[in-house]
Amino acid sequence: MKLSVLAERLGLECTHEGDREISGLNSLKDATSSEVSFLEKAAYVKDLAATNAAAVFVSKELAEHVPEGTVALITDQPYLTLAHATKAFAPAVIETAGPDAVVGEGTHISAGVYLGKGSVVGSNVTILPNTFIGDNVRIGDNTIIYANVNVYRDCEVGSNCIIHAGTVVGSDGFGFAPTRLGEFVKIYQNGNVVIEDDVELGANCAIDRAVFGTTRIKKGAKVDNLVHFGHNVELGEHSAIAGQCGFAGSTTLGRNTIMGGQCAVNGHLHVAPFNQFAGRSVVTKSIKESKKVFGGFPIMEQKSWLKLQAKLAKLLK
Amino acid sequence: MKLSVLAERLGLECTHEGDREISGLNSLKDATSSEVSFLEKAAYVKDLAATNAAAVFVSKELAEHVPEGTVALITDQPYLTLAHATKAFAPAVIETAGPDAVVGEGTHISAGVYLGKGSVVGSNVTILPNTFIGDNVRIGDNTIIYANVNVYRDCEVGSNCIIHAGTVVGSDGFGFAPTRLGEFVKIYQNGNVVIEDDVELGANCAIDRAVFGTTRIKKGAKVDNLVHFGHNVELGEHSAIAGQCGFAGSTTLGRNTIMGGQCAVNGHLHVAPFNQFAGRSVVTKSIKESKKVFGGFPIMEQKSWLKLQAKLAKLLK
Amino acid sequence: MKLSVLAERLGLECTHEGDREISGLNSLKDATSSEVSFLEKAAYVKDLAATNAAAVFVSKELAEHVPEGTVALITDQPYLTLAHATKAFAPAVIETAGPDAVVGEGTHISAGVYLGKGSVVGSNVTILPNTFIGDNVRIGDNTIIYANVNVYRDCEVGSNCIIHAGTVVGSDGFGFAPTRLGEFVKIYQNGNVVIEDDVELGANCAIDRAVFGTTRIKKGAKVDNLVHFGHNVELGEHSAIAGQCGFAGSTTLGRNTIMGGQCAVNGHLHVAPFNQFAGRSVVTKSIKESKKVFGGFPIMEQKSWLKLQAKLAKLLK
User: Fold this and answer.
1) Model confidence over C182-200: pLDDT tens digits?
2) Res. A16 pLDDT band, cuts 50 70 90
3) Is B224 close to A228, i.e. CB distance below 8 A?
4) How far apart are alpha carbons A23 and B206 in whole angstroms?
5) Residue C113 and residue C121: Cα distance in Å, rounded?
6) Which residues of B72-111 are buried (b: 16+ CB within 10 A; e: fewer)?
7) Residues of chain B found within 8 Å of residue C171, distances taken between Cβ atoms
8) Does B307 touch chain C (CB under 8 A)?
9) Least CB-CB distance to C172: which of A128, A164, A313?
10) Is the Cβ pair A202, C204 closer than 8 Å?
């Protein structure tokens, strides 16, 4: 889509000078010269100055920070404008035309499995009944996908993975822009999910696709049942996450993260590798140290939490 | 069913004087003159005195409060009697006869989708593979229902909704009456769920149908993954509920309720509109104020919770 | 499989003296003379001395405690060796040959239901669309299984049960042995799940199969939505478990356990019968008393927890 066409559709002014073909939307940091980005908060002005984006949704006040070569698309509510723009780049919910899926040798596709257009399934894969594999999905070799699993369009599952029944890979991230009347406008989630090799996902998990880019479960990670991953989360290699944990959006966790059941991790955090978290922890801040055991809410070292509980118990006497 | 027939089936005495046709069961407040109700606890005697119910399961001690025109059906254990009565009004699990579903123009029904008897699906709807739409379901226009979703019989989904994969709308509420031996007798959940227009539900949620009446997710509300709604909950318009929150039965929340992940809300509460709740809050009491931010367990203002945590941290020094 | 063949496959030495046919793996306590077991921690040396196992994976240091008649299979990392051994006994993910399922009189099997090889479904059962019943499953009479449910191979569901949509029975327990490089080797979960008579399971639950033996939900227990049961858990008769609770592996709970929403129970605990737990409790230790009400994290009597919260609230003044 031409930038001028997008701008017109959104009711924004766009000088013809900077017009070009636009392929999608992205964050200030990751946007290429064919993508449009946005500045939501003044705190990200540094990212704005350094962006390669073709154009940026930006308020009048902050437009002066838009770098040369990037078109400033002036709007009172950049985040809301972004939300409206995402719809223009959302793919079809389901493709009805296109090449049939390709399936490798020795692969068993059970009754009732749906394979989307343009999808590629590797060799010696087993897919149990009534699983949904959307369009343009890639699945590696030797992977087992149990029944009633859902892999949304454009997602990838590696080789030697196991996905248990009922798990959802690639549902929309929870992204909405509020209007001034307090209503929510959907931010279409045009990214995907990549499940790398040797990953096991438990039953009835939900792993949201990225708003832009990729939500990623890295090589060798093991995830228990009923775990929730928000959009753009990255879980490090050889991590083990127990049942009912939840990860808010855009958080990254280093390799060998070990987590007990029912933990929560706030959004936009970075957790260093090789840390452990006791069950029910709430990770409320980024963690730079490694090889420690944490617990509690707010998060602290587990030994501190135990000490604190002992002190509290004394209050009862 | 005649009231006398119901009474006989339950082993209760019923004078022929008050006999009439009964259409179902309901709470004291909502029961019409063709419905039967019950008095569980003396605390609800006021509701009993004001009821329009045709008849009431009630203990001998409290029978004097049954208003004129309402038949008192005397029983030692009114709640247990109610449980037995609900079975008499439970519809079939699945209809095998009846009119085929009607589907609007431009609607795409994928392979493996089940459409129940008497259901009506609007125009330009997309339903992805292997989704189950029970009997007598209503779905509005332009709605997208992803794969392996379940909408139980008699439920409604509005227009412009999105329901992500694996979500269950209309499963039975968690209602059982204990016997004196500590066993549980099922209270059949004969109500339904209504999802109003412009609602988005995440993946693998579970929204229970009402015991009587309706569990309701109101217009424009957005719900993340793995959220649980008990029977008879009402979530207000334009609310946003993050992942893994849980709502116990009969709680109502006003419009623009904003809730972080893994919150819990106790049953039978009323939460005023325009409030926010930090992640992991437990709403332990009704809230009458608006435009506040709450957190903690038991619930308090979030700023108090932060202050409390700071004080507790000092105990460690 | 011959013990000598298993040993060779695992690269372990095995004298021909003790060679015999091996049927599977099991814990030290439960292993029969045709099963192999393992000693993970010195703390279980007593169980080793009393085991009936045909052979035991054991470190050199602890091999002296292996009883007469049991073969010591010496390995530096017994738990890792066990993990490798489990793969040798894992059944096929899905059988493609074998006898068709047998279905009782008056049973309704809806469209899209998969019935595995050798499975037996009782009389007057209702199974709604797109549910997956794996191989060699037993289902009793009068049971209702809603749509998109998953019952993995070799599991059992009793009579008069109700299983709501999306629930998974028999997914793999979360068991992995770490290598010295911090990678995880899967412990194949070769046990099963038994759901006894008169049980109701809510929507989108996940009940893991046992690593060895059986995960068991006992007669008359009622379970709400989105509840997670780890491998080898036993839930007592006539228990009632509210939404989003989670049970870590190998914990046993006595009859009439009543639990509010979002509770967690640590692994390898024993909870005496007739106890109640307030919502959000974390059961951090075994409980020997009965007829008490518990709450909090760490667990304490609920009245103590309320008192503690009242004291903490005073800190704010």
Assistant:
1) 999 999 999 999 999 999 9
2) low
3) yes
4) 37
5) 12
6) bbbbebbbbbbbbbbebbeeebbbeeeeebebeeebebbe
7) none
8) yes
9) A164
10) no
